[in-house]
């Protein structure tokens, strides 16, 4: 950006900006609901119970169901996929009955866990009986199955040189499957699958990027502490 273009921007001082912010009225009840939404969606049941007691904010879901949902999520994160499937069916069997993609991904994760444990014959049998028929019906499923089975080409799957294949063994893959299942459970309970707070922070970043083109003002670069920076002039 040239010097002339920079100088044409409107400069808003920190004092002026803070005054404008103080004029924006946000109800405490709305802030409390935003916090409760985050705690419920992310599964912090103890924190949600404490926050309910301290603020009087009522969750829009039975907090008891959070414990069940977190048990399902933890089972996947620990590689106990069969246990997770049993738990989610106890909660609501329609979740998996009506979501073939989610069920395939859970079965895929079961296959990954068998490979991780070195149970090659069992993994091959499981892939042929449970996953191959689904792959024949869905090209995307078939590609994911082929990528997973490729791990069996190595005596030690962790030595696989192909990044997109080897990463299936990462904990991030378990987390991805757990998050997908968590979102499906939330949807079945008529609750948003994603917390509102991160979306608001993304909107803040977008709004600041748009405003950067027109003005120099106190930005919030530190989202954790919400610190206003001095405007660049």
From TrEMBL:
Q: Which InterPro entries match?
A: CRA_dom (IPR013144), CTLH/CRA (IPR024964), CTLH_C (IPR006595), LisH (IPR006594), Ubq-SigPath_Reg (IPR050618)
Write down the superkingdom of origin: Eukaryota
Q: What is the name listed in the Swiss-Prot or TrEMBL entry for this protein?
A: CTLH domain-containing protein
* CTLH domain ranges (all copies): 65-122
Q: Which residues form a coiled coil?
A: 162-189
Q: Which UniProt keywords apply?
A: Coiled coil
Q: Name one GO cellular component term.
A: nucleus
Q: Which SMART domains match?
A: CRA, CTLH, LisH
Q: What biological-process terms (Gene Ontology) are attached?
A: proteasome-mediated ubiquitin-dependent protein catabolic process
């Amino acid at each position: 950006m040239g010097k002339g273009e920079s100088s044409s921007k409107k400069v808003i001082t920190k004092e002026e900006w803070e005054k404008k912010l103080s004029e924006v009225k946000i109800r405490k009840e709305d802030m409390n609901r935003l916090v409760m939404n985050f705690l419920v969606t992310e599964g912090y049941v103890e924190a949600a119970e404490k926050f309910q007691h301290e603020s009087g904010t009522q969750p829009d879901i039975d907090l008891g169901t959070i414990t069940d949902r977190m048990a399902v999520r933890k089972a996947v994160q620990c590689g106990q996929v069969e246990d997770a499937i049993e738990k989610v069916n106890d909660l609501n069997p329609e979740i998996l009955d009506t979501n073939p993609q989610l069920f395939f991904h859970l079965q895929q994760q079961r296959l990954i866990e068998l490979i991780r444990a070195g149970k090659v014959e069992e993994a091959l049998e499981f892939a042929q009986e449970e996953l191959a028929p689904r792959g024949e019906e869905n090209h995307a499923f078939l590609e994911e199955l082929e990528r997973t089975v490729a791990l069996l080409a190595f005596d030690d799957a962790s030595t696989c040189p192909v990044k997109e294949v080897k990463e299936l063994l990462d904990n991030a893959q378990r987390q991805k499957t757990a998050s997908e299942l968590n979102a499906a459970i939330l949807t079945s309970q008529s609750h948003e699958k994603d917390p509102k707070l991160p979306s608001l922070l993304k909107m803040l970043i977008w709004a600041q990027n748009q405003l950067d083109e027109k003005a120099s003002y106190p930005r919030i670069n530190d989202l954790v502490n919400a610190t206003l920076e001095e405007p660049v002039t």
